[in-house]
Amino acid sequence: MVAALSLFFALILLSVFCLQKSQADKVAKWPSVTGVVDSVKIATGHSRSSTYYYQNVTYKYDCNKQPFENNTIAFNSTSRHYYSKADAVNGKYHQGDIVSVYYDPGHPASSCLDNANTSFYYQLWWSIVFMVVAAVTPFLPNRSNSEGYDGRRKFANPF
DSSP H helical segments within the chain, as ranges? Predict the structure, then answer.
């Protein structure tokens, strides 16, 4: 059962990785135009054990003589999180900065500032871990009822 679940999760993560890798490869080939950072706000996020900050960047650019505005820094990325507010304030983007904006030629409203994203490889790592668990589990010793194990933990009587 553990092997089947591990294989299931491995296949899901591997398929998500392949989809995101395919999207990243397309984004890496997008043409670029010059844009300007319109505003930078510091936003707050929370995880189980900490608070993190990130820059919410809005930028403007023209493509085919049409104005566009967007706020996507990178697709599939967690690389813009900072663990102190000061780091976020002093982050990569500032209001008025001239930036390269990478846009989808078929849909110019879809754009990003960073087209060299590789932060999604953790999914490949976890899919490998689950595959190893799926491969090793059948060879582990089995504690079955044939050995007198009834599925309940046995505790020493403290009295």
Answer: 2-28, 85-89, 122-136
Contact (CB, 8 A) for 77 and 114 = yes
Kind plus residue range of the DSSP H or E element containing 34: strand 32-46
Q: Can you give the pTM of this predicted structure?
A: 0.66
**Model confidence over 25-36: pLDDT tens digits?**
888 899 999 999
DSSP 144: -
Extents of the domains making up the chain: 1-30+117-130, 32-114
Distance CA 44, CA 51 (A): 7
CA distance linking residue 64 with residue 59, whole number of Å: 17
Region for 94 from its dihedrals, namely left if φ exceeds 0, alpha if ψ lies in -120 to 50, beta otherwise: beta
Is the Cβ–Cβ distance between 131 and 7 less than 8 Å? Answer: yes
